[in-house]
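Predicting holo structure, guanosine-5'-diphosphate bound.
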Amino acid sequence: DAEVVLVGRSNVGKSTLMRELTGHDFTTGKKPGVTRQPNHYDWAPESFMFTDLPGFGFMSGVEEDRREAIKTDVVRYVEENAEHVLAGVLVVDGKSAVDIIDRHTNDEEIPHDVELFSFLQDVDVPPVVAVNKMDKVEDRDARLNELCERLGLYPPWQQWDHIVAPVTAKRGSIEPLREILRERFREAK
Ligand code: GDP
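Done. Tokens:
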């Protein structure tokens, strides 16, 4: 079966988004890094699955080697399942993503969100970026342009609307993401 994978840092709203997409209530140990096994959900009526992979990136209170182990698990899972993964949804926090990316770029390390995005492309999993928490973003177009630029998608963001989906999961406002996934599903048939 086709599968949709959600990845992203802790606390960006992956669980909330999964709940909105699937209608399943989704509660796990809320401590970052606790859930290491992917959680699978069927998404009726379409016959594809959602897999929520553990958040990674900054996880406060989680040891460095444990963070690395979680990251390795996520990467391995996606690699092993790449063939039937219809879309890899990178979930980011629209309010803070650019600042976090820039902070880490200064550390001369590749920021996790950027790394994840190019990783999905490398393993031929079509990436989707769910830019969540848009309710907290005031300068919407400017923020989305900046984020696109950091991910190597040349602005304006609107020309990437088959990849970039601004959403507010908490309010159930996720239509742009649904539309992208529907389109991917149609193409895959
Ligand atoms: P996860 O760790 O990625 O699974 O994130 P959660 O789904 O647990 O959400 C983390 C926090 O962000 C929770 O307090 C959510 O209520 C909040 N959150 C999720 N989506 C949104 C949103 O669209 N807007 C705002 N303002 N907060 C959100």
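Residues 132 and 167 are 5 Å apart (CA to CA).
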